[in-house]
Amino acid sequence: MTAVERPLDRVAASPYLTALAAWVTARVLLAVAWAASSMSWFDRFETATSVRHQGLFLWDGTYYRDLAQHGYDGVATEVQRFFPLFPLLGRWVGWLLGGNDDLGLLVVSNLAALAALVLVYVLVQDVTGDRRLAVASVWWLALFPAASVLVFAYSESLALALALGAVLAVRRERWAPAIVLGVLSGLTRPTGALVAIALFVAVLDDLRRRRGVVVHLAAVVAPGVGTVGYLAWLQWRFDSWRVPLDSQRVFRAGWHEPVSRLVTAVVDVAGGQFRDVFNASFAVGAIVVIILAARRLPVGWSIYTAVTLVIALAANNINSLGRYAFTAFPLAVMVAVAQQRLPARWPWLGRLLLPMSGVLMAGYAVAAWSGRMIP
Questions:
Q1: Which long-range contacts (CB under 8 A, 24 or more apart) does 45-52 make?
Q2: Is residue 28 part of a domain?
Q3: Which of 185, 189, 247, 375 maximizes the CB count within 10 A of its CB?
């Protein structure tokens, strides 16, 4: 073993060093993307809906900022579709940092991203015993094409960290943390309750070995309790729990049967209409990796990811599909598994995939700033 390999091996053996290396790399790539968007070519690339001036608070980040600063009473009714935990944490951390809500949101988002990277390493190592897969999963979670949202003032990083923590806690039979993290997951995003699918399968495995139905059931329903709790609060405070559902219906242009919606997107792209090229490509790729990784990972992870993808596809407007599906943490792990399954005669492809994904992530951010796509 060479002197160059030894420190790299030490980094790979540590979930903390591996996570930190991937976390820093992602932010360097986003910094390069931001610098690139300040050049003259961007003036020709951006659209009338350019949001570069909003920096890391682009698109949904503006709503989270408004919620952190003003609460639900000070924003439009439609903003109730954004669940409360992330803006609340941003406000509290901002208060600790001298009343800077913007900084508080970015600190929560980016520290949660680092926590998610550590947790995915620990969880994959715990489930598979494969350190190489754990390392690859960290890097794929950090450099996934939609992973720029883990740097933005978005709630995805918090949702990922809570979901990973809840699943790991169930596997290690830490029931109190599992229940608390599950409830918090349901308070973070509308799809946070879907974590219950992965928890349910993990709980079934544990029930085969021991009794304790009540605490197992509490861990499974915890994400749903968080979601229902927020909706119940909306009903009590604003006399309507349906606003998040109705707002999503408007912004997604109504609901659509997901299979035919995907087929339509693929046909449109093949016919030269490229509006959904990223979303259609992402959906097809996600389906492939779910199939390739199904035998290697717990069945609950496959179901959880598939259901998340189906819900994301069940709309006439499938903008942000990559981000929605990315919130199911197993997807990044599945990509790492699929990478391992590449034929040995294509080693060059395995080495290129992750750097290409990092470039796509930077391009994803530039396209989002330009107004050409909604992350």
A1: 45/366, 45/370, 45/372, 46/369, 46/370, 46/371, 46/372, 47/370, 47/371, 47/372, 48/371, 49/371, 50/369, 50/370, 50/371, 51/368, 51/369, 51/371, 52/369, 52/370
A2: no
A3: 185
